[in-house]
Amino acid sequence: ESSPRLPAPKDVRVYSYNFRSLLRWSPVKVDRGLVLYTVQFKTGAFNHWDEMNCTRISRTECSFPWSLKVRRWTIVLRVRAELGQETSAWVETDQFVAERNTTIGPPQLNSVTPSPNSLLIRVTPPFGPEAGDFLQYHVSYWENATSTTKKQAETSNTLFKIGNLKESTLYCFTIQVELMTHSRPQLLGEPSAPECSRTTMS
Question: Which positions fall inside the Fibronectin type-III domain (predicted)?
């Protein structure tokens, strides 16, 4: 390899949301020519670097290929800048494990069906579950007039009921997903924005 004379990319970070992951970095500024970038990866199992379908690209991000979708794998990435025959030093990321390091978004709220003493809520998980996944939904709800006291409910179903409510009363709630895995501390997702619905009259 030629001697590194180009500045190396900075701010090299993996961004991962609902298990969709990509590597991003800040552009290398030079006063001549177009800087290109090459990204490589290695897994914890094999200690050699592989190409990652991002060789001599001009953009400053690279999405993970399908071959790196295994959530339990430990992955290290590296990127360097290239200009003609010149290359920068490689910049490596910290170890990334999707099952530990991804950010889980809120579930999607599909419907709320009020009755006099309950709300029936249907949600869709924020990502397609894999075999062995166990998702727990944490529901916080409160009466809108007295929003200081929140009550909690937990369920593993995508259709669930918040019961023992007052009739003709506005209730608000947020939901967040917890991913239970066999091997690691559980991963708690971001709460949804508050939604409000009024129970009906009996």
Answer: 103-202
Q: Residue 144 is encoded by which pair of tokens?
A: 């809108």
How far, in Å, CA of 22 to CA of 20, rounded? 7
pLDDT in tens, 79-137: 999 999 999 999 999 999 999 999 999 999 999 999 999 999 999 999 988 877 899 99
Q: The sheet that has 119-124: what strands, in order across it?
A: 108-114, 119-124, 159-162
Q: Nearest to residue 76, comparing CAs of 32, 42, 121, 119?
A: 42
CATH of 10-100, one of 2.60.40.10, 3.10.320.10, 3.10.310.10, 3.30.1360.120: 2.60.40.10
Give the closest residue to 95 by CA, choosing from 14, 189, 185, 17: 14
Enter the DSSP assignment of 51: E
Which tokens is 181 given?
């895995």
Q: 62, 39 in Cβ contact below 8 A?
A: yes
Residues 15 and 96 sit within 8 Å (Cβ to Cβ): no
Q: Does domain 108-198 have CATH number 2.60.40.10?
A: yes
CA–CA gap between residue 113 and residue 104 (Å, rounded): 26
- Beta-carbon contacts of 139 under 8 Å, excluding residues fewer than 6 positions away, are 121, 152, 153, 154, 155, 160, 162, 173, 174, 175
Locate 116 and state its tokens. Answer: 């006099």
- Tell me the two tokens of residue 17: 């949301």
pTM for this entry: 0.86
